[in-house]
Design goal:
It is found in: Cytoplasm. It is an enzyme of class 3 (hydrolase). Could be a nuclease involved in processing of the 5'-end of pre-16S rRNA. One of its GO terms (cellular component) is cytosol. It comes from Robertmurraya kyonggiensis. It is a single chain. By secondary structure, this protein is of the alpha/beta class. The chain has a single domain, classed as YqgF/RNase H-like domain (Nucleotidyltransferase, domain 5, 2-Layer Sandwich). It contains 4 helices and 5 strands; from the N terminus they run βββαβαβαα. A 5-stranded mixed β-sheet has the order 3-2-1-4-5, sandwiched between helices. Helix 3 crosses helix 4. The two termini are about 15 Å apart.
């Protein structure tokens, strides 16, 4: 059974999966969504959950630097609650402060072009969210 990590934004959701032993996180894909039109990519996430036998979902929780929950954090709670209702899997929220910045730094150090960075940044942030969670479970 695998754990799925998600970096939820207003336009995309970065998706990462653990290996079967729950040691490492790998980026899988970035799903385009549209919050304004209530298009959240749940159908695609359902396919991933089924195909990879996901047993738990880790949703990045973007807290403010002072630890409070803002509008993006509320959106993450909404997203996670919908996942729980739709798929009946446990959802864990993981503090994702600075993961996107860290992902950007890794991609810059790897000399990835701006155009390519934009395509993979959310997936990379999902990897960092999931890996942080997996490391905390050891």
């Amino acid at each position: 059974m695998r754990t799925m990590g998600l970096d939820v934004g207003s336009k995309t959701v970065g998706v990462a999966l653990s290996d079967e032993l729950g040691w490492t996180a790998q980026g899988l894909e970035t799903i385009r969504i549209n919050e304004e039109r209530n298009v959240f990519g749940f159908e695609q996430l359902g396919k991933i959950i089924k195909e990879y036998q996901v047993s738990k979902i880790v949703v990045g929780l973007p807290k403010n630097m002072n630890g409070t929950i803002g509008p993006r954090g509320e959106a993450s709670f909404f997203f996670g609650n919908e996942l729980e209702k739709l798929f009946g899997l446990p959802v864990v929220y993981w503090d994702e402060r600075l993961t996107t910045m860290a992902a950007e730094r890794v991609l810059l150090e790897a000399d990835v072009s701006r155009k390519k960075r934009k395509k993979v940044i959310d997936k990379m942030a999902a990897v960092m969210i999931l890996q942080g969670y997996l490391d905390s479970q050891k």
